[in-house]
Amino acid sequence: MRVRARVAFTAPDDRARELLSRYGLRSKAKDSSVVYIFVDDENYEPFVNELEQQEYHPVVFKEPVFTKKEMESAEFFEVSLVAQWGYPQPEDDFGYEKISFDQSTACPLCGQGATQIKPYFISGYPKFGRSDITALFWTYDLLIDRRLKDLIEGAKLTGVEFWPLFVYSDKGQGKPVEGAYELYITHELPPAAPSTEFPIVNRLPRGMKPCRCGRLGRNLPLQFHYERRDLDGAMDFNKTHEWLGGALGTTRVEIVSREVYELFTQNKIRGVKFSAVAIED
């Protein structure tokens, strides 16, 4: 695995091009002040340091990049989605939490970790756009259509249920959403291996600080690590033990088996990205 950084900074276009040229870099974006560079490149640190010294306020986003061999040999994968759509209903005052969640499992200090116990109400049929799978804003739970549901059922994959979705109505029970479902994952993995590096988010909304429960204030790692013995009971679909995301919308991340990866790739399921999980013997 290599780590690629997306570096965005606030410099005039001509000055940005001059800086990039000095370090042998070229922007692939329309805006010259956005560039991709691997962090093990000898120019990475000098380039970012100069941006900081010149007060061009660089914002760095890092992502893992895996070789074909690494992906072919991986046994488990982290899932991330390209698209998000809609909000659980009712939105006002986060009313959906009272309808669909058991708040007794949430941390009394930061409020993170409530367990979903009832299906979601949403505003209508999900707009998947160019994707075959999407996620709700705020909760990041997965929504799929009938085709993907049939594929998963046909492959007899484990650790998942298909929960109905309902159109929200303030007059009571809403109508079922035909042909769309929540991909509800039933299995939780043990904690990740200690070698997994979870970035700490120090700047939280509303002046909050990372919570001692560990659910608020940790962000996603570049790669999940698991000890092999902790994956002995893993299913095809799993949720992480950790709640991550850094801000007020933390969630447990989806970890899936090679069977899921192959099913999705062979059927060209759009809108999902896979990252290899490292297994330590």
Outline the biggest β-sheet: 6 strands, mixed
Helix content: 10-25%
Strand segment tally: 17
Q: Give the total of domains.
A: 3
How much beta, percentage-wise?
Answer: 25-35%
Largest sheet strand order: 5-9-10-12-11-8
What's the overall geometry? globular
Secondary-structure class? alpha+beta
* Low-pLDDT residue spans: none
The oligomeric state of the chains shown is single chain
Number of helices: 6
Mean of pLDDT: 93
User: Cα distance, first to last residue?
Assistant: 18 Å
Rg from Cα: 21 Å
Element pattern in H and E: EHEHEHEEHEEEEEHEEEEEHEE
Note down, in words, how this protein is organized.
The chain has 281 residues and is an alpha+beta fold. It has 3 domains: 2-65, Alpha-Beta Plaits, CATH 3.30.70; 69-81 and 188-280, no CATH class; 84-185, no CATH class. The chain has helices at residues 13-22, 44-53, 68-73, 96-100, 146-154, 258-266, and strands spanning 2-8, 34-38, 59-65, 76-81, 84-85, 101-102, 115-116, 121-122, 133-136, 142-145, 160-167, 176-185, 225-227, 237-244, 251-257, 272-276, 278-280. The longest helix has 10 residues, at 13-22. It is globular, with a radius of gyration of 21 Å.
Supply the key terms:
30% strand; globular; Alpha-Beta Plaits; 6 helices; 281 residues; 17 strands
Quick overview:
By secondary structure, the chain is α+β, with helices and mostly antiparallel strands.
How are the elements arranged and paired?
Elements: E1 2-8, H1 13-22, E2 34-38, H2 44-53, E3 59-65, H3 68-73, E4 76-81, E5 84-85, H4 96-100, E6 101-102, E7 115-116, E8 121-122, E9 133-136, E10 142-145, H5 146-154, E11 160-167, E12 176-185, E13 225-227, E14 237-244, E15 251-257, H6 258-266, E16 272-276, E17 278-280
Parallel strand pairs: 5-9, 8-11, 13-17
Antiparallel strand pairs: 1-2, 1-3, 4-15, 4-16, 6-7, 9-10, 10-12, 11-12, 14-15
